[in-house]
Write a structure and sequence with these properties.
- The protein is globular and about 85 Å long.
- Helix 4 runs parallel beside helix 6 and helix 8 runs antiparallel to helix 9.
- The two termini are 48 Å apart.
- It has 13 helices and 9 strands.
- A 7-stranded mixed sheet has the order 4-5-6-3-7-8-9, sandwiched between helices. Strands 1-2 form a two-stranded antiparallel ribbon.
- By secondary structure, it is of the alpha/beta class.
């Protein structure tokens, strides 16, 4: 691995390892190679020129962008599965350019703009795309790009522990496919690929009600659910496209997975430093603004003595600060 790029040699080694792995799984109908081929064909399309002269641009026609939700319990191998898929996709893959660690929504949208016919791994996507943050402007922009930048034909993975925690627009609008890491054993993990119902009026586009009914039926009968039970139920659902097994990527390309964890740890440190810098900045502004507030109260420039209601607009004008800073200071004050 050089400059965080996965080399062609590493890609070839992974492919050879997987081919050997699947020779021992002769009862399996699908492999991760089928999965990658299915989506690469979906994204490829044809390159066509539009316009003339300086306005001439080259775009893909007949291609589709895939927004894929990847869920599963901690430790089932979501990150390793997506890394494996990105490497096998065959396009240049960089652990910095093609991965967003501990993301902010603006970071996701910026990378989505800069990629074309490539892959993007949004690790811990729940941090930026949680359903309770649907008023966040950066999140709204990411959702908009997911719906309008389809001509770039990218394959974007959102890694989440729980499917229901994602925004409704991502679950029922932008995302047509989802992957569930159903379980993991000592030698492999089981991957389920599902497609959203084409019935846009459906109140259960992913077939979760049907699945829940089947799981509850087994629980009532024998109290516990085995991996065999899980697989049988998921395979029986009408929206399940395929399922396959994958080995542990850490055993195949340990340098790649170790570097992935290093970069994720670095992002965590950067995030902590960024939060501290933001707190220091707000504290500095608070020290500057405090004397101004004293003057406002003493001189009664906002009519406090007459019971006037103070608006944010009037307060912002008196303090000579931006609306964004005022909101941060007010939010800071509420937490004190």
């Amino acid at each position: 691995m050089r400059n965080d790029y996965v080399t062609p040699r590493e890609r070839d080694y992974l492919a050879k390892y997987l081919k050997k792995f699947y020779t021992y799984q002769f009862n399996e109908r699908y492999t991760i190679f089928d999965f990658v081929r299915f989506f690469k064909k979906r994204h490829k399309g044809k390159m066509v020129y539009f316009g003339t002269g300086d306005e001439k641009v080259k775009r893909r026609v007949g291609s589709l962008q895939s927004m894929m939700l990847v869920s599963g319990s901690p430790g089932t191998g979501k990150s390793n599965f997506v890394l494996m898929t990105q490497i096998l996709y065959g396009r240049p893959f960089n652990l910095r350019k093609n991965v967003v660690y501990l993301p902010k929504a603006m970071e996701i949208s910026n990378k989505m703009r800069n990629l074309e016919f490539s892959t993007l791994n949004v690790d811990e996507a729940i941090k930026a795309m949680r359903n309770t943050n649907h008023y966040d402007k950066d999140q709204q922009e990411t959702t908009m790009l997911a719906q309008t930048e389809r001509f770039k034909a990218n394959w974007i993975f959102f890694l989440i522990p729980n499917f229901r925690e994602m925004t409704k627009s991502m679950r029922e609008g932008s995302s047509e496919f989802r992957v569930v890491l159903l379980y993991r054993t000592e030698t492999y993990a089981r991957v389920i690929v599902q497609q959203k119902s084409p019935n846009f009026r459906s109140d259960d586009p992913w077939g979760d009600k049907e699945a829940n009914f089947k799981y509850e039926k087994i629980i009532k009968r024998k109290k516990t659910i085995t991996n065999t039970d899980k697989l049988k139920i998921e395979r029986s659902l009408s929206n399940t496209v395929m399922d396959f097994m994958i080995p542990n990527l850490e055993l195949i390309l340990p340098n790649v997975t170790a570097r992935y964890l290093e970069l994720k740890a670095e992002s965590r440190i950067d995030e902590l430093n960024s939060k501290q810098a933001e707190r220091d900045k707000i504290d500095k502004w608070r020290d500057i603004i405090a004397p101004k507030l004293v003057r406002i109260i003493y001189d009664d420039t906002l009519g406090l003595r007459e019971g006037a209601r103070i608006t944010k607009k009037a307060l912002k004008t008196e303090l000579s600060i931006s609306n964004e800073l005022l909101n941060k200071l007010l939010d800071k004050g509420r937490k004190l």
